[in-house]
Amino acid sequence: MKKKQAIGVFDSGLGGLTAVRELIRLLPSENIVYFGDTARVPYGTKSRETIIRFSIENILFLLQQNVKLVVIACNTSSSTALPLVQSHFRVPITGVIEPGVKEAVRVSRNGRIGVIGTRTTIRSREYEKQLRKQLPDGRIYNSSCPLFVPLVEEGWLNDPETEAVVRRYLQPLKEKGVDTLVLGCTHYPLLKTVIKRVMGSEVKLVDSARQVASRVR
After folding, report:
1. How many Cα atoms are found within 13 Å in the side-chain-facing hemisphere of 62?
2. Contact 93/32 with Cβ under 8 angstroms?
3. Catalytic annotation, pick one of 23, 82, 85, 185
4. Residues 6 or more apart from 7 whose CB is under 8 A from it?
5. Is 72 helix (H, G, I), strand (E, B) or coil?
6. 142: nearest Cα among 167, 121, 165
7. What is the pLDDT of residue 211?
8. Going residue by residue through the chain (217 aa), what tens digit of pLDDT does each one get?
9. CB 3.0 to 4.6 Å from 178: which of 108, 114, 118, 167, for a disulfide?
């Protein structure tokens, strides 16, 4: 009997499991193969060439597992490698940035949108470029939060030290009056409780993991 094809998902570590959780919720009858590259986490501090190489290697591994579609659940890879790998592989490949952008534009009331991510994701300005296309008069504020991924990988989700780090990174965005904050890394939803506490309940948090699952469906 031929093995049922699966949806392949990869990320630089544990963060992409937030996307897997949403995929299971929306597509309970699908098989899912997850590859978390914990040996080489984090991606956000590495060069563009390295991220592209890692992304290609991860996709080749997933193709060996009989996948019919690949989700790049890593914002760093999505912002750096997505167009290249889409042009080099026949299997459909989707990233997390475009779905997150569409949701941020939909829920923002005042057009002031904050984007947080790894240094590489923020440096690529991919979120900003796509947000400005859909919201030309909007105000987009970017902030890299390089310590968030190590905190998540260590499991320090609600520690006082974690809240202090989150507050230090996000206070400038709060002062800008953003009403929407894009969690531009699939690790970040695991810090959602702390982020919500720091930003306030009136700020909408856009979880790209949830949006990419809708896209896959």
Report:
1. 30
2. no
3. 185
4. 23, 27, 30, 31, 32, 33, 67, 68, 69, 70, 71, 216
5. strand
6. 121
7. 86
8. 567 899 999 999 888 999 999 999 999 999 999 999 999 988 988 999 999 999 999 999 999 999 999 999 999 999 999 999 999 999 999 999 999 999 999 999 999 999 999 999 999 999 999 999 999 999 999 999 999 999 998 999 999 999 999 999 999 999 999 999 999 998 899 999 999 999 999 999 998 888 899 999 9
9. 114
How far, in Å, CA of 166 to CA of 197, rounded? 10
SS3 at position 119: helix
Which of 74, 105, 122, 194 is the catalytic position? 74
Token pair in block for residue 194: 């702390």
CB atoms within 10 A of CB 12: 31
Look up 74 and say whether it is catalytic.
Answer: yes
> Left, alpha or beta for 31 (phi > 0: left; psi -120 to 50: alpha)?
beta
Find, among 40, 16, 47, 191, the residue nearest to 116 by Cα. 191
pTM, two decimal places: 0.88
Three-state secondary structure call for residue 15: coil
Concerning whether 145 is annotated as a catalytic residue, the answer is no
